[in-house]
Amino acid sequence: MKISREEVLRIAELAHLGLSPEEVDTYRGQLDGILNYIDKLKKIDISNIEPMAQVLHPSAGSDAHPELRGDTPRPCDIADAVLAAAPDAEKPFFRVPKVITR
Amino acid sequence: MSAATAWTVADVRAALLAKKISARELAAEFYGRIERRNPELNAFLTLSPERAYTQADRIDASVARGDDLPPLAGVPMAIKDVISTRGVRTTCASKILENYVPAYDATVVERLERAGAVLLGKTNCDEFAMGGSNENSAYGPVHNPAALDHVPGGSSGGSAAAVAAGLAVAALGTDTGGSIRQPCSFCGIPGLMPTYGRISRYGLVAFASSLDKIGPLAGNVADAATVMSVIAGHDENDSTSAAVDVPDYSSETQKPIQGLRIGIPEDYFAEGIDPEVKEKVQSGIALLERLGCKRIPLQMPHTDYAIAVYYIIATAEASSNLARYDGVRYGLRVPGGTLTEMYRNTRERGFGAEVKRRIMLGTYVLSSGYYDAYYLRAQSVRTLVARDFTDAFKKADVIVTPTAPTAAFALGEKTADPLQMYLADIYTVTGSLAGVPGISVPCGKNKAGLPIGMQIFGPHFAENRVLQVARAFEEARGSGS
Fold first, then answer.
1. Model confidence band, residue B136 (pLDDT cutoffs 50, 70, 90)
2. Domain residue limits at B78
């Protein structure tokens, strides 16, 4: 067994996911199957292999990939529309349940 | 299938110029089709008639003035519902975004409208583009127009079904592990996954950022090429979009394919492939040889590891990207006594089973103590999968494979076992991991009358070559079975 019920609950907490007891059991079994399958990667020797960190192909050239643009402010003007679509907003804030208690 | 006229981009242009139909009448014709067919197909989630008719009227005014018409003038199109549309609900087929209306347009949407396209509405898909059958939509599955009790494929199943059923001339989809190519294979139309970085993703709701691509689905390869010419190219709003020159795909696809070397990886025809799929794809390869291509047998030894790599990397990135759905800024909020309870309740109620499963898996492989064993190892094997492609393209100009191991399966057939569903992505995820372009093009039908697709991969930024081979193949094969 790759993953226990307790680990499923711990992962759900990390992911802020509420799960019913039935879901915990279902996911435990399914994740176990998937993790067992994924174990096939252990067969490969990766000692001299660089992990792939950039997908954009080097043939694009460094000029072709201008990650940095000028730090020039531009108008955006959608703040009102964004706040209007929020579940609970009071301009210019999003309102949430009380975070700090004393 | 209804006997509705199949419109191509060229047909629309000719009819508008000859004043046989107005853009407004054409849009109305397509909305009529949608009204008739969508109840059984469930391909569209939201229609945007106000926006479509405003655009159609603009095109009709251009026609009346005798202006030069832009390349997609009056062309009725559909947009997958993971791509943002200003003022038009964008749900990602999720309950968590049921009432989400974006405040801005994706760059691809803006470019399509600037090129004259008439956007009919938003198409159904697997929730957050996670799935290969469209059965993960919170709004019900899409039905395959070729057989209503079969899946259309996924995740861009609504876009594929809409085009295949004649409810749109072309559509946009997204492809992370096969989500354009596989539904196109199942529905019998061409669809292109471009090179990573070729098309701006500004306004695309992110699933797995190192894999997500937007691309066209169309009734024929030439139309897919026209859409590509409109949407490809650098965008200052997406730093992952490459500033690489965009060729005129339409003229590039006209070039003859004689003398091209087509690589055939034996690893893609091994166990697990349906015999009818194998036969049709091999006939397709034989046809390419008759057209003057040279067949090159290839080995791509890491193919068998691609699914494992993909489901680590894609879920890891998804778990991070989907952290933003917390009930604070947009979408669903389910109240809770504390902030954490609110997050948890919102996500429990808002996400469907597959999305939760992937968030769980992704969180697990990134969690403390497992990162090196899973995520880092997967990134290293990803290098090897990509290297298989680099090596292959030293010997071959394109690589030809099946798109999927089977034709469309029945609704409900694979939902009980997620791993079995994942394994069906075997031929598409390889190219996704490598970041190369690939197209699925119809190559026949099985005895049950279900379409089968052939996949053509090209080197990075060689969409022109992929489209060129696909178009020559389509033309030589004709529209038969």
1. very high
2. 9-251
Where does B232-373 have alpha helices with state H?
Answer: 249-252, 275-290, 306-321, 339-350, 353-366
* Tokens found for residue B167: 């409810």
Q: Which helix (H) or strand (E) holds A86?
A: none
- The reply to whether residue A50 touches residue B360, judged by beta carbons under 8 angstroms, is no
The string of pLDDT tens digits covering residues B151-175 is 999 999 999 999 999 999 999 999 9
Q: What is the nearest CA distance from B79 to chain A, expressed in angstroms?
A: 22
Reported pTM: 0.97
| The pair of three-digit structure tokens given for residue A1, joined into one six-digit string | 């067994």
Contact list in A for residue B308 (CB cut-off 8 A) is 37-38, 40-41
Residue pair B13/B65 in contact by the 8 Å Cβ criterion: no
CB contact, 8 Å: A70 with chain B?
Answer: no
Chain B: closest CA distance from residue A69 (Å): 8
Q: What residues of A are in contact with residue B104 (Cβ under 8 Å)?
A: 78
DSSP for residue B247? P
Label the pairing between strands B213-218 and B294-298: unpaired
In a domain, B198, yes or no: yes
User: Does residue B197 belong to any structural domain of this protein?
Assistant: yes
Q: Which of B466, B471, B444, B468 is nearest to B455 (CA)?
A: B466
Domain count, chain B: 1
From the list B155, B159, B229, B432, the catalytic residue is B155
Q: Which of B310, B359, B360 to probe the A interface (max A CBs under 10 A)? A: B360
One-character DSSP codes across B392-429: HHHH-SEEEEESSSSSPPBTTSSTT-HHHHHHTTHHHH
Give the residue from A19, A24, A41, A98 with the most B CB atoms within 10 Å of its CB, the best one to mutate.
A41
Q: Output the pLDDT for position A75.
A: 86
Candidates A17, A86, A94; nearest CB to B360: A17
Q: Is A86 within 8 Å of chain B by CB? A: yes
ipTM strictly over 0.95?
A: no
Does residue B148 fall inside a structural domain? yes
Domain ranges of chain A: 5-43
Q: State the residue for tokens 């024929």.
A: B220
Residue B379: list chain A partners with CB under 8 A: 51-53
Closest CA to B199 of A71, A79, A56: A56
| Residue at token pair 């970041």 | B435
**Is residue B479 in some structural domain?**
no
Q: Is the CATH number of domain A5-43 1.10.20.60?
A: yes
Enumerate the β-bridge partners of residue B303. none
Predicted confidence at residue B479, as pLDDT, reads: 59
The CATH number linked to B157 is 3.90.1300.10
Beta-carbon separation of B344 and A18 below 8 A: yes
